[in-house]
Amino acid sequence: MIASLRGTVLTIGLDHAVIECAGVGYKFLATPVTLGSLRRGEEATVLTSMVVKEDSMTLYGFGNDEDREMFHVLQSVSGLGPKLAVAALSVMGAGQLAAAISSGDAKTLQSIPGVGKRMAERLALELKDKVSVFAPQAGAGEATTGTSAVANAPVVEQVVEALVGLGFSDKAARPVVESIVETDPAAETSTVLRGALAQLGRKK
């Protein structure tokens, strides 16, 4: 089992990154917050969890122990797999999720793409006693905006595509993304994605 990676960051995508360790590049899926903390060409350490299925082995990366543990706890709920767990951590950190689950705040939990009323109620019911170990504070802070400018249209399309992949509709995502890019034309894709997730999470 691969528990962590430490090495040079080779590539960073909208939903994944590749870190080279001892000459081997390891690809892992991660939240925008985790990806936003990485810098291409620099050394980084990422905590990981490997999900093994019959036809695949997938690494998921995390910036801290709390998010990784919450990733595991969320999957103890029937019908909630690793992709939905990552979507949850993309909208809220471990502390925010724990607070929403502990208080039975189904409305907040439904801001997670792919989580409807029934799943939100199941989360609150099944995990209430399991999330007490998590700090009740917000998980992720503000990320540093990159300095390299990017063209507006490609950024909008890339971020909208990523949001649709997370479960948001194009109709809901596009205006939010366009507004963020218009406000800060030089923002990198990871920064725009984090901002859009924050806004869409509040609106849903």
- Read across the widest sheet, the strand sequence of neighbours is 3-2-1-4-5
- Looking at the structure, what is the overall shape? globular
**How many strands, which pairing sense, and closed or not: the largest β-sheet?**
5 strands, antiparallel
Helix proportion of residues, in percent?
Answer: 40-55%
- The total count of helices amounts to 9
Question: For the terminal residues, how far apart are their CA atoms?
Answer: 37 Å
Radius of gyration: 17 Å
The parts where pLDDT drops under 50 for at least 5 residues are 135-151
Mean pLDDT: 84
- The counted number of beta strands is 5
SSE map:
Layout: E1 4-12, E2 16-21, E3 24-29, H1 32-36, E4 43-53, E5 56-62, H2 65-74, H3 82-91, H4 94-102, H5 106-109, H6 117-127, H7 152-166, H8 170-183, H9 189-203
Antiparallel strand pairs: 1-2, 1-4, 2-3, 4-5
Helix pairs in contact: 2-3, 2-4, 7-8, 7-9, 8-9
What does this protein structure show overall?
There is one protein chain. The chain has 204 residues and is of the alpha+beta class. The protein is 46% helix and 19% strand. The chain is built from 9 helices and 5 strands; from the N terminus they run E-E-E-H-E-E-H-H-H-H-H-H-H-H. The protein has helices at 32-36, 65-74, 82-91, 94-102, 106-109, 117-127, 152-166, 170-183, 189-203; strands at 4-12, 16-21, 24-29, 43-53, 56-62. Strands 3-2-1-4-5 form a 5-stranded antiparallel sheet, with helices on one face. A hairpin with a 2-residue loop joins strand 4 (43-53) and strand 5. Helix 2 packs across helix 3 (82-91), helix 2 crosses helix 4 (94-102) and helix 8 crosses helix 9 (189-203). It is globular and about 45 Å long.
